What we know:
Structural class: alpha/beta
Mean pLDDT: 97
CATH superfamily of the largest domain: Nicotinate-nucleotide-dimethylbenzimidazole phosphoribosyltransferase (CobT), large domain
Number of helices: 14
Helix content: 40-55%
Low-confidence stretches: none
Radius of gyration: 20 Å
Amino acid sequence: MKLLNDTIAKIGKPNAEVELAALERLRNQARPAGSLGVMEPLSARLAGIAGKIDVRLNRKIIVTCAGDHGVVEEGVSLFPQEVTSQMVYNFVNGGASVSVLARHAGAEVRVADIGVNFDFEPDLPVFHKKVRKGTDNFTKGPAMSRDEAVASIEAGISIVKELVAENRPDMIGTGDMGIGNTTPSTAIIAAFSGLLAADLTGRGTGIDDDGLKLKIKAIEKGIELNQPDPSDAIDVLAKVGGLEIGALGGLVIGAAAYGIPVVCDGLISTAGALIACELAPAARAYLFASHRSQEVGHLFMHKRMGLDPLIDLAFRLGEGTGAAVAMELLDAATRILADIKTFEEVGIADSN
Length: 352
């Protein structure tokens, strides 16, 4: 808990003066004011975080956190649990969807084993941060202990520390892998919002109507049995969450503490970001929502954090795919601010 508390205490505010200067430059550029829409405030936010107008996102890293879930026993996913470990190897070998999209965005994918129910080779090039081999079935009791929940968050923080020690990233993206993990992610927003599971639950990997009923029933039972406390984010994570979800929250907190912008992916990554923002509201200033997925609970997560996703491409995959696509937009936003000339710089009369 000390690492978590110390890291939260280190989160400062972005540079407001630089952000204001960026907004002023955008207003004075040789084009109609506001004509580049949401890209303008995005670029100003990035400038405030970096503390300079000319922001360069040269080193972009997507960290895909993996973990397994006991609740798959309830028939909430189309795929068997073994797929989680198989996909970890796919990430490492560069053959996954996020691998392809990240390469296009000029980003590197790094994988973290937080709670996969499998023994990976010690020399496999992943972050070996296993807290335990998967969570328990939260329809029968808490998903994990409170100490394990804290350990999962601190695993994410430690990954950021290691990345900074290697070569400080200019931006971090968050992604996930874990069969069944839309179920605990939906349970998390249900616990915080008090909304009905039936109004928040999506089809995940593509379950049919019967599977959707089983999924809703599992979430309802888990919340009723465990009574997660919405005023205590660690309690929510421990009772109905997931190990990789905790680590995703730790990535957000760790990035914010180092002043690194972080872009979260879909439902699962956003559940982690939600845990982070409940624990450390100051982290929200460093957080960007990449996209709105087809999972209905994702909308309510964004609303709770006051975040507007950059794109809506009807994604429902995870892995960090949406974060990879959004990184290209964020890259473009930095160039809009720094490279478009002002009226004064090009000698054009400013009608504004």
